[in-house]
Design brief:
Elements: H1 15-40, H2 50-78, H3 83-105, H4 111-137
Helix pairs in contact: 1-2, 1-3, 2-3, 2-4, 3-4
Length: 138
């Protein structure tokens, strides 16, 4: 019997590194919600608790943007984007999500961090999307 060997992709992919980092950010944000719920005995919804709502929105915001970023980044990479471009997108996404979460979760909110986080995230999505569109047209 031949032992199973895992096949490696023909080219090393960079996107999984950033997908893993974004997933860990999501896990941290999720744990913040879970621990707060347990400490305050809130099982459903937010029960009008603004601190819980803030934690839930920080988590949800990550859940809303991270998948789009990862998909676009992977498509850009598979379409032949240079490694430096993929790393730049990944760093922008990860940094943007961290800064947004810190700024959003702080009391009072750190609007500057939140805004920089969103700018980095949206710039990464925009540049990925435009790159893919141009690649498809050329």
């Amino acid at each position: 019997m031949i032992p199973c060997q895992r096949s490696k992709p023909m080219i090393p992919l960079l996107t999984p590194l950033y997908a893993g980092l974004l997933a860990l950010i999501f896990v941290v944000l999720s744990w913040r919600v879970i621990l707060y719920r347990r400490a305050n005995l809130i099982s459903l919804g937010d029960s009008g608790d603004k601190a819980l709502l803030k934690r839930m929105r920080a988590q949800a915001n990550c859940a809303e943007y991270a998948p789009v970023a990862i998909i676009l980044m992977l498509l850009a990479e598979l379409s032949g984007a240079p490694g430096v471009a993929v790393h730049t997108l990944g760093i922008a996404f990860v940094t943007g999500r961290i800064l947004h979460a810190i700024g959003f979760s702080a009391t009072p909110q750190k609007i500057g961090l939140r805004q920089i986080g969103m700018v980095l995230t949206l710039m990464g999505i925009t540049f990925s999307a435009l790159g893919l569109i141009l690649h498809g047209l050329i």
